[in-house]
Predict the structure.
Amino acid sequence: MTAKLSATGLTLFRGDRCLFEDVGFALDAGQLLLLEGPNGSGKTSLLKAIVGMLELEAGAVYWDGDPVLEQRQLFHGSLAWMAHRVGFKADLTLVENLRFEAVLRPQVAVDIDDILERVDVARLKRLPMRSLSAGQQRRVALARMLLADVPLWLMDEPYTNLDREGSILVAGVVNEHLAGGGLCVMAAHQDVDIDAPVQKVTLR
Amino acid sequence: MWNYLHKMASPPHFYRLAKILIPWLVLPGALLIAYGAYAGLFVAPPDYQQGDAFRIIYVHVPSAYLSMMAYMIMAISAGIGLIWRIKLAHAVAAGAAPVGASFTILALITGAVWGRPMWGTWWEWGDPRLTSELILLFLYFGYMALRNAIDDTAKADKASAVLAMVGAINVPIIHFSVQWWSSLHQGPTLIRQGGPAIDNEMLYPLLAMIVGFTLVFAALLLRRVRAEVLYRERRTNWVRELILSPRGDG
Amino acid sequence: MITNERELPGLMAGFVATVKRDLLLAWKRPGDVLNPVVFFAVVSTLFPLATGASPEQLEFSGPGVLWVAALLATLLSLNSLFLADYEDGSLDQFVVSLQPLPMLALAKALAHWLTSGLPLLLVSPLVAVSFRMPAEAIGVLIVTLLFGTISLGLVGSIGAALTIGLHRGTVLLSLLILPLAMPILILGARTVSLAATNETYSAGIYFLAAYAVAALALAPFAAAAALRISYE
Amino acid sequence: MGGLAMDGYGAYVWSCFALTLAVFVFNEWRARVRHRSVYKQIEVRVKALEGRQ
């Protein structure tokens, strides 16, 4: 059986520098892929390469056994991405931002308020994004993941700017997603506290 | 056929072939230009209207023609590079830009120097050819500025390729709109309309110049592209072997 | 999991939502809409002050001045077309979504036109009157500016997509776009001056309209390709 | 040959031909300079790598 998300021979250059060479993995439903490595080792670039935002020197990423570049639209409709920059409009309110997201990827049929309650930002919902702290914005980004009805989560340092409670929240949410048959690719440089099977790719 | 093309487009093959080709382009090119220059300057009779000043066309027309030609080569190879991901095509586009821009400047200056005795002014806005040539120069500058602004070669190749293709679509539109604009101006034009057919003694040197310029231009372009190829392939094995080989390649 | 039965957000929904969002953003920052309009008025004022204000001179230079000012004002606002979305990361979210990028480019260009081109159209008659432009020429001015600003915005969106993330993007953008914009300027300004001197001018309008239609069909794809390249 | 002055147009004509020659030479020179600098750059790196092994 082919793995849900797999990759072989991923090689990426930035200018003259080789960020990584011959990286491969095969990830199945319910599994977490952890990208480890110091700052500047190419974790974010690898994430971007997986979603097809960076052109690889060599190698390919496969979704359901087919190269993602041949089914970009379908693949992008099957993933949610928690990037380093949260990607919200500072002038729009929390709800206005999340409502716009609904056209970007399929949404779960759950009341938005329940999810905001869960990530503990419900009382901020009428405020413009700019008045939220960095940690609160991260929580809203987490709400975006929960609202998306997609199997694949890509998370770039999801614990950044979060307090203890927030970190526990992220771990809980990811655990739940994996338990429900989802997949997660996460770049992190700390303990992630995940129960599911974890694969690791270590970059130098 | 396809395999042959593929082999042609392989950088090491091109790099070697270009070196062999360059003298075979320069030699006939130089001969043609020498003949064209001599015949154009001394043999061809003076023009009945413009006198000896018309002899400037022997350098103006070929350079103006090459400035357009270079832009088309640049845009087409940039498009090939973008669509079929052929690195050599991007190298050709990168090499064609500065050479094309220098011929555009040459065409502009020789046009202005020609205009001085003809119109009594260095620059005549009413002339559509010079005006579109000037806009073409700006297109070249924009292209080279974009290339310079991007550090990563692969990214610069692709971004400038988009610009070159958009520019190529616009070149005929620019040409046409400038023509329309100046037709309302009733301005003077360089080449008289409906005059007597051009004399063979005037024509043959011009044709020789055009062909000669094209051959020398091709050689200059190949030289540029060789440097570009070498730079782009600097990480590869064949370049390493080339450098380490006893003869080297200077 | 994506299955066929489930309803996915459609193309049209994405287009409408993007335009709406950008209009909402403009509504919350009205200064961004006003600035190009004020710029247009100020630049138009510069010319009479610099070159003299005799009636004949104004009538003669009016169409050209208005068109140059409109071109510069559009260019000024183009720089931010994708830049804000790029900087706050919302463009990343769009790139990695099931909405196609050309659709985004078209939606952004439409929202940009509604918030910068349209206000210019509305203000241009006022400035034109100060240049003693006859009524019919003012009508022609508005029509040429309509097609002209649409074309400029679309061609400019390609340049804006190519220059995101680059140093000194504004100067570079002008350098890339101005040569491409020259046919639009030539056709627009010349058509208005023909109308002002009671000559036939319809050809210019047809060409501008054709240019706008061609730009509508092609530019979003070029801008999308440029966006993908800028992301590497 | 008396044609050098070209009825007073000589300065215009000759300067154009001289400029053309200059453009050819300039392009050739630029290409050579670029090629040489790229070559030197790679040579330094390759030789350094070779020395390490």
Summary: Residues 1-5 of chain C have pLDDT under 50 and may be disordered. Chain C has one domain: 26-230. The CA atoms of residues 4 and 44 of chain C lie 56 Å apart. Residues 26-230 of chain C form one domain.
